[in-house]
Amino acid sequence: MMTTQRRRTIGAGATLGAAVLLLSPTMTQASTEAGTEVAWPEEFTSAYTVMATPDEVIDADGEVAPGEEGATGDFMFWINSEEEVICYEITLEGVTGGYESPALTATHIHEAAAGEPGPPRLAFPDPEPIGDEPRTSSGCLAGPFMTGVEGDDGADTGEGFSLAEIEANPAGFTGDSHTEEFTAGVVRGQLMQVPLDGIETGGGGMQQSSSQIGVFAGAGVLAVAGVSAFMLVRRNQAA
Amino acid sequence: MIRGLNWRLDVGVRRLPLGVAAALALGLSLSACGTPASQSTGPEPEPAETTEDAAPSSSAGGSAEPDPAASSSPSGSAAPSGSASSAASAAEAGVRPVAVNIASIDVEEPLIDLGIAEDGTMEVPEDFSEVGWFDGGGMPGGRGPTVLAGHRDSTTGPAVFHRLVEMQPGDEVEVTDAEGEVHIYRVERTEVFAKDDFPTREVFGALPEDELRLITCTGIFDVEAGSHEDNHIVFAVPVDADILR
């Protein structure tokens, strides 16, 4: 997948974060267990959105286990798979109570198709503040990743995970968050890819035609001026 | 004096073809903006190939199966399966849109499917007279934004969405879905964003409600980049929702 140039900043928090990073680069490469917190990259290779709802929650046995009624989650992810960086902006609304999960955090991307359970591959800082609306979380994590959950093979479920796997099959991944009351998930939704950057909906013809009109108009003025001068000359000669 | 006059006329005549030549050259170099994203080669990219490339990566929100023919077929052939969320009801997924009617700017067009190009940006209609919808996003009557895009201009003059910039809050947009139902949206606001500071989340991000976005280009045409600098975006909400709000 090609890389698209990107110069945007994402939200005021991101701008502030980037400024801080520029000022003190050595202090910002904070390594957490889940990954390394990094600045927003200049480039991304793909972007995803998630509409997380309570009715999408599936428990470990694959059964529907509705989350908190009325709660919604809006997850946005930007991936640079070449640098193994994933940026996130997560907003939860209508979620009550504290978080709970056996993982490092309670907000994840699981490798799981719709209606299926699956292991967490990425763990993100939980949206805050608890007890106020909306809860938000944003930043960027660089691999290698850890989730704190041990898989069947005894290894961490984030170990060896590559973001290219999400790009290869976004619908095979789900975003969710778990709370004390809804341990299977308070809201959940599948990743849906969305476009990067602006939309190229123009060929420039309107601007071009106006400049063409300008050229013709200019030529016309010159021609009229020329003819007028010619008439003037003829008149002078006649006189 | 007559000789001088002839010289001046000569200059005038000579400048005209130069100007036209420059404009033509400009047109050729600018054509990239009108072709699907990042394809800088001429006006004839392969529709089936780009759609196929994009389909797997954008399948989450739209049809589960890639549909190579959909790019040139207004109605498409894939069922509005709502495969991304099997647990969601059909009402939450919405129904694939097939046509748009905007009386205020005299646009009445069928819709083609648009996916995501290899470089991660959104495909755009290859035909400057066509309007497309992003098939990885929301659908009318369902959750999330339905996103429609059309060209402001071709390489030679106005295109299908050249009057989109005239739309005002309160204007109505009718979107017909594949089941024949007409969804009426009312413009809430219009905004201009620099393409290099494009609000992806605001335009394409998940929503619990049904909304509509109409997108075209605006701003200065950057000759070197072969692209308008900005996008003009119309944000609309269902008329029914207006009553509820």
Automatic annotation (TrEMBL), chain A:
The chain crosses the membrane at residues 213-233. It comes from Nesterenkonia sandarakina. The keyword Transcription regulation does not apply. The keyword rRNA-binding does not apply. Keywords: Membrane, Signal, Transmembrane, Transmembrane helix. Residues 1-30 form the signal peptide. Pfam families: CHRD (PF07452). Residues 54-193 form the CHRD domain. This is CHRD domain-containing protein.
From TrEMBL, chain B:
InterPro entries: Sortase (IPR005754), Sortase_dom-sf (IPR023365), Sortase_F (IPR042001). It comes from the Bacteria. Transmembrane segments: none annotated. Residues 1-34 form the signal peptide. Residues 53-84 have a biased composition (Low complexity). PROSITE patterns: PROKAR_LIPOPROTEIN. Keywords: Hydrolase, Signal. GO terms for molecular function: hydrolase activity. The keyword Hydrolase applies. Residues 34-84 are annotated as: Disordered. The active site is at H151 (proton donor/acceptor), C217 (acyl-thioester intermediate). It holds the Pfam family Sortase. Gene3D superfamilies: Sortase. This is LPXTG-site transpeptidase (Sortase) family protein.
